[in-house]
């Protein structure tokens, strides 16, 4: 639900009101930046930069109803830019596999382990997508934006969004098919699950 | 269908799990407010420089460009001192103001404008990119209105090969996004901001006067060179010659055009792909106006010449 009063106060330059707006969007903004870039080390910086840009240009937003998609447009652009600038720096992120391995004690059923593995596989597959495809996937599945909203955020036609979504799903399916065959062998082997997969994500 | 729903749920759940791998600190509102308060206490130029520092300088060239901006900024701050201003102006070798209007294949429109400043060995781009709208949201305007914005007549080709198409409607849009960069593709940028007023203020502070304007029209649906772009540009300023004197002179009717043909390797960073293509650029001058076609779609030289002929023939 859009808080028109809050946005109007922000438009008038009320910094305290803007603080409240940041508080409201912070969690989702940081997590979205993290998912789009795959970089936990710069996700907060991205969100901060997006909020600052948002403050300075908010007065140009004519219809408050579109605040959500308008803000995410800024966030996505900043994410792409900053990820591109930091692409030569290595981000160590091994928490995913540790999470799986740490919970896969003997008391857990194989179903749970397998579910977690599937999630990890999907997560890894999403990481392999190009930035544009990954962004569409994140906006659609994580942020629950509609196709028309994503087209506004990305500044492209709805058909382009649909086509990217379709392409991303296909690619994910392909990745998962390959990965599944690979992982199945490991599960059969048993105790070796994932140990040689503990590689760092860049 | 059931499989699709399960697959959708799996993606959703996976993203949800992944998103919780990061701890989100709750001091963001305070950080943002502090940054804004600090910004507000500075002049526009200082705000810009501060933002540059926030984003970070990543290369020697960027550092040099930032230094250059600082010099210009100083010239602006101390603009009562004509000697300082004259010195700063002298550092600028060339300024090109570009207006780019593109009609993409899906019917959306983008207008961007850019200032290219060269000073010594450095080139700085100050760019503004304007919102792409859907067809229903914007009034379409024809080339006459574009001419009115550019300030000169734009002669369009009567002939185009089947693979190309000429948009007869373009749109003039409001500002949405601005940045300052060193490279044309924005890959080596200094800072970006959605505050176009701030960008314009900086440009004014830097005492930049436009010397040339370009109207750029995409002749096919390709988004960029890698996708096979064919771009038609009309300008009231001379184009920058990046190939020295390697062009081939060709007589087209009563004009002399220059054809550049180069085998180039294009990169598509997002897909991590490269491909080799032949880049063909045809340039000619008609009165005070300069024309140019940049092709990456594989058009032959004779086809480019035929397009140019159809433009030159027009009164």
How is this structure best described in words?
The complex is a heterodimer of chains A (202) and B (315). By secondary structure, chain A is mainly α. Chain A folds into 2 domains: 4-85, Rna Polymerase Sigma Factor, Chain: A (Orthogonal Bundle); 95-193, Winged helix-like DNA-binding domain superfamily/Winged helix DNA-binding domain (Arc Repressor Mutant, subunit A, Orthogonal Bundle), CATH 1.10.10. Chain A is 72% helix and 0% strand. Chain A has helices at residues 4-11, 15-37, 43-57, 67-85, 95-103, 110-128, 131-142, 147-154, 158-189. The radius of gyration of chain A is 20 Å and the shape is globular. Chain A starts with a helix and ends in a 13-residue tail after the last helix. Mean pLDDT of chain A is 74; it is low at 88-110 and 183-202. Chain B has 8 helices and 13 strands. With 315 residues, chain B is of the alpha+beta class. In chain B, β6 and β7 (189-193) form a beta hairpin. Chain B is 32% helix and 31% strand. The radius of gyration of chain B is 23 Å and the shape is elongated. Chain B has one domain. Chain B has helices at residues 2-19, 28-40, 44-55, 60-77, 82-91, 143-150, 196-205, 301-312; strands at residues 94-103, 109-119, 122-130, 141-142, 169-170, 175-181, 189-193, 214-218, 230-235, 248-252, 255-268, 273-286, 289-295. Classes of the chains: A mainly alpha (202), B alpha+beta (315).
Return the CATH topology of the largest domain in chain A.
Arc Repressor Mutant, subunit A
Overall geometry of chain A comes to globular
The number of helical elements of chain A comes to 9
Determine the N-to-C terminus distance of chain A. Answer: 36 Å
Count of separate structural domains of chain B: 1
Give the mean pLDDT of chain A.
Answer: 74
| Biggest β-sheet strands, sense, barrel of chain A | none
CATH class of the largest domain in chain A: Mainly Alpha
Rounded to an integer, what's the Rg of chain B over CA atoms?
A: 23 Å
What's the rounded overall pLDDT mean of chain B?
A: 65
Find the CATH superfamily of the largest domain in chain A.
Answer: Winged helix-like DNA-binding domain superfamily/Winged helix DNA-binding domain
């Amino acid at each position: 639900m859009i808080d028109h009063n809050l946005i109007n106060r922000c438009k008038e330059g009320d910094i305290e009101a803007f603080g409240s707006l940041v508080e409201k969007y912070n969690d989702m903004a940081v997590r979205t930046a993290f998912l789009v870039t795959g970089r936990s080390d710069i996700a907060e910086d991205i969100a901060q930069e997006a909020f600052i840009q948002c403050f300075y240009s908010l007065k140009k937003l004519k219809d408050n109803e579109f605040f959500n998609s308008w803000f995410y447009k800024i966030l996505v652009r900043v994410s792409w830019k900053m990820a591109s600038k930091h692409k030569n720096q290595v981000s160590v992120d091994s928490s995913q596999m540790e999470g799986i391995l740490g919970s896969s004690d003997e008391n857990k059923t194989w179903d749970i382990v397998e579910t977690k593995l599937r999630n990890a596989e999907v997560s890894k597959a999403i990481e392999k997508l190009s930035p544009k495809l990954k962004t569409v996937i994140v906006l659609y599945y994580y942020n629950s934006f509609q196709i028309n909203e994503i087209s506004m955020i990305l500044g492209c036609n709805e058909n382009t969004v649909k086509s990217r979504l379709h392409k991303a799903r296909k690619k994910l399916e392909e990745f998962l098919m390959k990965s599944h065959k690979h992982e199945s062998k490991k599960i059969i082997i048993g105790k070796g699950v994932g140990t040689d997969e503990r590689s760092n994500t860049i | 269908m059931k499989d699709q729903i399960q697959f959708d749920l799996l993606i959703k759940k996976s993203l949800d799990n992944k998103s919780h791998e990061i701890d989100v600190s709750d001091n963001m509102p305070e950080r943002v407010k502090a940054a804004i308060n600090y910004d507000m206490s500075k002049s526009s130029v200082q705000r810009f420089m501060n933002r540059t520092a926030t984003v970070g300088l990543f290369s020697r060239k960027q550092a040099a460009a930032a230094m250059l901006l600082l010099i210009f900024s100083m010239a602006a701050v101390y603009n009562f001192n004509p000697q300082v201003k004259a010195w700063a102006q002298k550092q600028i070798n060339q300024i090109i103001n570009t207006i780019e209007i593109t009609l993409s294949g899906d019917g959306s429109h983008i207008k961007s404008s850019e200032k290219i400043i060269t000073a010594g060995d450095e080139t700085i781009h100050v760019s503004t990119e304007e919102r792409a709208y859907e067809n229903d949201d914007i009034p379409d305007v024809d080339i006459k209105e574009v001419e009115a914005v550019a300030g000169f007549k734009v002669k369009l080709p009567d002939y185009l090969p089947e693979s190309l198409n000429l948009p007869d409607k373009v749109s003039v849009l409001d500002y949405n996004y601005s940045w300052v960069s060193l490279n044309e593709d924005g890959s080596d940028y200094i800072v970006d901001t959605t505050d176009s007023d701030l960008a314009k203020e900086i440009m004014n502070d830097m005492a930049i006067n436009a010397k040339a304007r370009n109207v750029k029209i995409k002749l096919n649906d390709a988004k960029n060179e890698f996708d096979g772009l064919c771009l038609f540009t009309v300008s009231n300023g001379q184009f920058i010659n990046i190939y020295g004197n390697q062009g081939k002179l060709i007589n087209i009717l009563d004009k002399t055009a220059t054809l550049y043909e180069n085998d180039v390797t294009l990169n598509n960073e997002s897909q991590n792909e490269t491909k080799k293509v032949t880049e063909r650029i045809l340039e000619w001058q008609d009165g005070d106006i300069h024309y140019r076609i940049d092709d990456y779609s594989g058009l032959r030289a004779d086809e480019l010449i035929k397009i140019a002929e159809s433009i030159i023939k027009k009164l």
